[in-house]
Amino acid sequence: MADDGLDYNLVFPDAATSERHWPGTKEPVVILLGWAGCKDRHLSKYSSIYNEQGCVTLRYTAPLKTVFISETFGYKELSSTALKLLEVLYDYEVENSPVFFHVFSNGGFMLYRYIIELLHSDKQFSSLCVIGSLVDSAPGSGNVRGALRALTATLGPKITPFLRYVLLTLFAVTVFLLRVVLYPLTKYFHKNHYDAVQDRPPVWPHFYLYSRADQVIRHRDVELFVDALKQKGAQADSFDFVSSPHVGHFRDFPEQYALKCRGFLVACMKDLEGAETKKRQRVQSQ
Fold first, then answer.
1. Strand 98-104 versus strand 29-33 pairing type
2. Quick count: other Cβ atoms within 10 Å of Cβ 24?
3. Furthest CA-CA distance within the chain
4. Residues 229, 236: contact at Cβ < 8 Å?
5. What does the alpha-carbon distance between residue 259 and residue 204 come to, in Å, rounded to a whole number?
6. DSSP string computed for the chain
7. Sorting pLDDT into bands at 50, 70 and 90, what band is 77?
8. Contact call for residues 88 and 124 (beta carbons, < 8 A)
9. Which of 140, 113, 131 minimizes the C-alpha distance to 224?
10. Angle at Cα 233 formed by Cα 230 and Cα 235, nearest 5°?
11. Quick check: 110 and 77 in contact, CB under 8 A?
12. Could you tell me how far CA 44 lies from the centroid of its own chain?
């Protein structure tokens, strides 16, 4: 589907599956934010984890230019994308359902950063009930080598060697200058996704899936990020797959990965049900 220039895919489960997994409550809406260069056929494999669980799924991957160019130069193009994506929930009248995010790599996390900011500041979205977020292979910070590996994989084999060399060189120089050397100054105008979310973490629980074998996102970046969130009182947990490559955990460990996704979603829904029960008890006792 493509509304207002937004190329997304929305899938509704059949009523029987939803009722079997979520009896007496609204089924969750799972928003999947793909990694840079992700094809929808790849993202759909992840959404099937949730479709089989009776969830509504919304899949979207930000364009390459917004991830590798706009964000590098500090243009907040992804902010308007985040707004349009959240408005899709209202367009399809699922804004009253619990919302769960599944975010992939820095490409998805950059967009997720702006979604968090809107949920914090925009009154239109204050009624949305976000129950949790699962983050796969992110976030990373200031890793020029990892960024180059991500761009190389994204460009694919069809591009000529000369053009590949030119693009990678320009990208490396730009990232190193703006996001490493000059970042102590440029962060006052445009913080990167890593610092922005770490400085003002969301209140809903997060589960970070990563691997020390990841050649794009340093495992230490994820571990430090999770520790920083915990120090601020945020609910954050993590799991290290140890040997799987960048966004390759599901491919290498399909059953374990799916179990962790579904288990975390169910735990978040139980937390929501517990909070609603306590709220009703307080109202009845007044």
1. parallel
2. 6
3. 73
4. yes
5. 20
6. -EETTEEEEEEPPPHHHHHHHSTTSPPPEEEEEPPTT--HHHHHHHHHHHHTTT-EEEEE---HHIIIIITTTT--HHHHHHHHHHHHHHHTT-TTSEEEEEEEHHHHHHHHHHHHHHHHH-GGGTT-EEEEEEEES----S-HHHHHHHHHHHH-SSS-HHHHHHHHHHHHHHHHIIIIISHHHHTTT---HHHHHHHS--SS-EEEEE-TT-SSS-HHHHHHHHHHHHHTT--EEEEE-SS--TT-HHHHSHHHHHHHHHHHHHHHHHHHHHHHHHHHHHHHH-
7. confident
8. no
9. 140
10. 65
11. no
12. 15
Question: Tokens representing 142?
Answer: 């200031």
Q: Could you tell me whether strands 236-240 and 206-210 are parallel, antiparallel, or unpaired per DSSP bridges?
A: parallel
Read off the tokens for 143. 């890793």
Residue 183 pLDDT exceeds 50? yes
Q: Are 8 and 86 in contact (CB under 8 A)?
A: no
Task: Give the lowest-confidence range in 9-18, 101-110, 144-153.
Answer: 144-153
Q: In 10 A of CB 129, how many CB atoms?
A: 17
Residue type present at position 188 = Y
The single residue listed with the structure tokens 């571990």 is 223
Q: Which pLDDT band holds residue 171 (cuts at 50, 70, 90)?
A: low
Give pLDDT tens digits for 89-131: 999 999 999 999 999 999 999 999 999 999 999 999 988 999 9
What is the Cα–Cα distance from 113 to 107, expressed in whole angstroms?
Answer: 10
Pair 60, 33: CB distance under 8 Å:
yes
Whole-model pTM: value is: 0.85
Tokens of 25: 């409550």
Output the six-digit token pair for 88. Answer: 């899709």
Closest CA to 145 of 165, 124, 112, 172: 172
